[in-house]
UniProtKB/TrEMBL annotation:
Belongs to the UDP-glucose/GDP-mannose dehydrogenase family. The lineage of its organism: Eukaryota, Fungi, Dikarya, Ascomycota, Pezizomycotina. It comes from Hyaloscypha hepaticicola. Residues 450-562 form the UDP-glucose/GDP-mannose dehydrogenase C-terminal domain. This is UDP-glucose 6-dehydrogenase. GO terms for cellular component: nucleus. Its EC number is 1.1.1.22. It catalyses: UDP-alpha-D-glucose + 2 NAD(+) + H2O = UDP-alpha-D-glucuronate + 2 NADH + 3 H(+). GO terms for biological process: glycosaminoglycan biosynthetic process; polysaccharide biosynthetic process; UDP-glucuronate biosynthetic process.
């Protein structure tokens, strides 16, 4: 099911190695169903529609100053983004895509990561990322298409955008506008030449990792700014006079001061502006979040130079973000806003999880409670999905950073309040595992458990701070015969390597332990005494799906044809919108014939070699992973149930399965937030 790009480790010194360990880059699961261009089109559709609408609003209200800024980009020619990770890579790609007149270069000290960004085997998986990268990184050809919307009554006789033109023309007998889109030269680059690229940049974005400090003062809470400090030094030495420095990384409040101090030490006679521009994208929806952000926050000093710098950065965003969504404020507010945004989201999850325990004990149903409270617009329905708690690289670290800040300021009550968000999260996982063990007669000895879902959320291969792993560690204490793990977005080898690293190689089946990782759900579940659902993947859901609350919903509706465009020079967002419509309608990865030839991998590329006939693919333009044309199939629970040991158990940590449907298959369900078998016994 997967093509495994085995990533050789970088050959850099020990300190850097340890920092790179913190910065994990899961591999791209080319074989994942989520790579289907049709699915990607459907998922991005809403974001694009919104972006196009936003442009409508903006066009109606935009000032001539905005228009001038967009056209000129306020003189910005080169942007350098330091850090080619989950934030740096996609952010730079979208910035370059939307600003063809600006060269954006992403630099990283990890040569392996940079090499991956230059090939079709990207180091991270995000729906829609590759299409954007293909245009910005590889350039594009001239293309043209009819400005007439596709007529669905004649779809059968059409196969592409251009054939739709001739069909319509011959039928209606008059000439419609053709839209011509000019070729683009590449303007997105990836490099390991950090200092050289910094020295050429008008704007330097800092998007390096800022994990929790693991030792010394503030260990376990404070932010480790080692990587940020190292980059700041590089910038201080090499940046050209007047360059604007931008914190994209999530940083403690008043970090801009630290950066200014470093700059002053190295360049005492020159002044630089430091902006705070935190990123709010979420894993799995990074591209739609970037294309259509709720807001772009820019913090600056209130001096004229600070405001000018903020305007310059705003002008880069204004190429695709409506001006009213770009909010400027003071630097400290901006830095703090990011921590608070994550803390508030995490707090909602802990709040609903705390209520889930009350539901289990009283007979109330958490999904019904969440639905009813979420209908109050003052509360809203997002981030109210109870489960085994939040994971991911940021919520925990950012809440802890806030706790540390409060403690440093002597605000103990505040620190205690936010600490409880983390405590509930840990407690919730433990509760789930306790319930699972209790359902299985308080013993796991000799039993096989199937774990469905390993990534910290659906639609991503990001496994940092995976709640599943924390639960697996707890389950191991009860000595099960086997824990069989499956995740539709993660590569089994990567999961094994990670478990070996974080828990110990001896726990893996290959080394005589009990954990095995499977590439399909049915083998993982065969003969299991219980199936534990740990990630809210759509594939795991029964039908009809339980009400979905909380996480950003993905539209299942077919994209609509955005034509006719009002102007004969559509924006990149509009062209992308059309491309998604055509891709989903005609299952063609390059319906506008815009893509340049995909970069070839080196001779003997391990990823290509792994099960694929590269020669066959060479002359075809494909989007990475687009060979899977079908959608994500929901699991056949009847098939799984048939092969489970009796009594058949599903322990649902993410509210994925319908209890009545499972009962009809002879399966007992126990889950989060409703009284299940656990209480009835
Ligand atoms: N992952 C996410 O979804 C989000 C992350 N953030 C924040 O963005 C920042 C970056 O996060 P990720 O992209 O997830 O991290 P990451 O770990 O995926 O990427 C960071 C990159 O920085 C590179 N790097 C570190 N030190 C360097 C140096 N001195 N010179 C050159 N390159 C260097 C690393 O090699 C790595 O490739 C963090 O502060 C995080 O809190 C913010 C919003 C979302
Ligand atoms: O700073 C960051 O790194 C990012 O952190 C989160 O994004 P992310 O962690 O990628 O994903 P989320 O969708 O927020 O989910 C986080 C965790 O919460 C869990 N969750 C989410 C929503 C919910 O209702 N219930 C719930 O348990 C998810 O399963 C997942 O484990 C924020 O949503 C982003 O805005 C932010 O930029």
């Amino acid at each position: 099911m997967y093509r495994q790009p085995s990533i050789p480790s970088s050959n850099i010194d020990a300190l850097e190695d340890s920092l790179l360990d913190i910065s994990t880059a899961p591999t791209t699961p080319d074989g994942s169903l989520t790579f289907s261009p049709v699915l990607q089109a459907l998922k991005l559709h809403d974001a694009l529609e919104e972006a196009a609408l936003g442009w409508g609003e903006q066009r109606a209200s935009s000032s001539s100053l905005d228009a001038t800024m967009r056209a000129s980009g306020s003189g910005v020619k080169n942007i350098c983004c330091v850090g080619a990770g989950y934030v740096g890579g996609p952010t730079a790609a979208v910035m370059a895509f939307q600003n063809p007149h600006i060269n954006v270069t992403v630099v990283d000290r990890d040569p392996v990561r940079i090499k991956q960004w230059k090939t079709k085997h990207l180091p991270i998986y995000e729906p829609g990322l590759y299409e954007i990268l293909r245009i910005a990184r590889d350039g594009s050809k001239d293309c043209s298409f009819s400005n007439e919307a596709t007529r669905f009554d004649s779809l059968d006789s059409m196969s592409s955008a251009s054939s739709s033109t001739s069909e319509c023309e011959s039928r209606c007998g008059y000439h419609r506008d053709e839209v011509a889109v000019k070729a683009r030269t590449p303007n997105l680059f990836f490099s390991t030449e950090v200092s050289k690229t910094i020295s050429e940049a008008d704007i330097v974005l800092i998007a390096v990792n800022t994990p929790t400090k693991m030792r010394g003062m503030g260990a376990g809470k404070a932010t480790d700014v080692t990587a940020l400090e190292a980059v700041t030094r590089e910038i201080a030495i090499h940046a050209k006079p007047g360059a604007i420095l931008v914190e994209k990384s999530t940083v403690p409040c008043r970090t801009a001061e630290l950066i200014q101090d470093t700059l002053k030490v190295h360049r005492p006679t020159q002044s630089f502006e430091v902006l705070s521009n935190p990123e709010f994208l979420a894993a799995g929806t990074a591209i739609s979040d970037l294309l259509s952000p709720d807001r772009v926050i820019i913090g600056s000093s209130s001096t004229p130079a600070g405001c000018r710098a903020a305007e310059t950065l705003a002008s880069v965003y204004a190429s695709w973000v409506p001006r009213h969504r770009i909010v400027t404020m003071n630097t400290w507010s901006s830095e703090l806003s990011k921590l608070v945004a994550n803390a508030m989201l995490a707090q909602r999850i802990s709040s609903i999880n705390s209520i889930s325990a009350i539901c289990e004990a009283t007979g109330a149903d958490i999904s019904e409670v969440a639905k009813s409270i979420g209908m109050d617009p003052r509360i809203g329905d997002k981030y109210l999905k109870a489960g085994i708690g939040f994971g991911g690289s940021c919520f925990r670290k950012d809440v802890l950073s806030l706790v540390y800040l409060a403690e440093s300021l002597g605000l103990d009550e505040v620190a205690e309040y936010w600490t409880s968000v983390i405590s509930i999260n840990v407690w919730q996982r433990e509760r789930f595992v306790r319930r699972a063990v209790r359902c299985l007669n308080n013993t796991l000895v000799g039993k096989k458990l199937a774990v469905l879902g390993y990534a910290f959320k659906k639609d991503t291969n990001d496994t940092r701070e995976s709640p599943a792993l924390e639960c697996i560690k707890l389950l191991l204490d009860d000595c099960p015969r086997e824990i069989a793990v499956f995740d539709p977005c993660c590569d089994p080898t990567t999961i094994k390597v990670e478990i070996g690293k974080l828990v110990g190689k001896e726990v893996l089946k290959d080394n005589g332990g009990s954990i095995d990782v499977y590439s399909d759900a049915y083998s993982a579940c065969a003969d299991a005494h219980a199936v534990l659902i740990m990630t809210e993947c759509d594939e795991f859901k029964t039908s009809p799906s339980p009400p979905s609350l909380g996480t950003k919903t993905t539209s299942k509706k077919r994209p609509i044809d955005p034509r006719p465009f009002q102007r004969l020079e559509p924006t990149e967002t509009e062209i992308l919108h059309l491309q998604h419509f055509l891709t989903s309608t005609f299952s063609d990865a390059d319906p506008l014939q815009r893509f340049e030839t995909e970069p070839k991998c080196e001779e003997g590329c391990e990823v290509c070699f792994d099960g694929e006939n590269e020669e066959e693919m060479e002359n075809t333009v494909v989007l990475s992973g687009s060979k899977e044309e079908h959608g994500k199939d929901n699991l056949d629970w009847a098939r799984i149930a048939y092969h489970l040991q009796k009594p058949k158990w599903v322990l649902d940590g993410r509210g994925c399965v319908d209890e009545i449907e499972m009962r009809s298959l002879g399966v007992r369900v126990d889950g989060i937030g409703r009284s299940g078998w656990g209480e009835r016994r």
